[in-house]
Design a protein that fits this description.
By secondary structure, the protein is an all-beta fold. It contains no helices and eleven strands. The strands form two sheets. Strands 2, 4, 5, 6, 9, 10 and 11 form a seven-stranded mixed beta sheet that branches. Strands 1-3-8-7 form a four-stranded antiparallel beta sheet, with no helix packed on it.
């Protein structure tokens, strides 16, 4: 089992920045994909970004490309999401997710996650 705990959410003005963190615990792993998803009120959960735990390849939703950066610290079992130039439409609960194993980049990064955190609220005011 893998437990995921997100932190770093909050209230920020449009144009501002936040950095989310996701700490993984429970078991060690060397191959995995770690992802960030978000869910706004009244909307379905959507993919934001993902990173390959061993190789470091990344993938982003078109809506956040150029503004968000996903990164990792393997020693700390932590994944980060740096969010710049935030917009009101980025307001959502942000969830960290993980799936263990070896995956190629692309569509495999978008779904099929086995472990989820409880989420952290990000609110962007206009």
């Amino acid at each position: 089992q893998v437990q995921l705990v997100e932190s770093g959410g909050g209230l920020v003005q449009a144009g501002g920045s936040l950095r989310l963190s996701c700490a993984a615990s429970g078991r060690t792993f060397s191959s995995a994909v770690m992802g960030w998803f978000r869910q706004a009120p009244g909307k379905e959960r959507e993919f934001v970004a993902a990173i390959n735990w061993s190789g470091g390849s990344t993938d982003y939703a078109d809506s956040v490309k150029g503004r968000f950066t996903i990164s990792k610290d393997n020693a700390q079992y932590t994944v980060y999401l740096r969010m710049n130039s935030l917009k009101p439409e980025d307001t959502a609960v942000y969830y960290c997710a993980a799936k263990l194993g070896t995956y190629r980049s692309g569509s495999s990064y978008l779904r099929g996650y086995d472990y989820w955190g409880l989420g952290t609220q990000v609110t962007v005011s206009s």
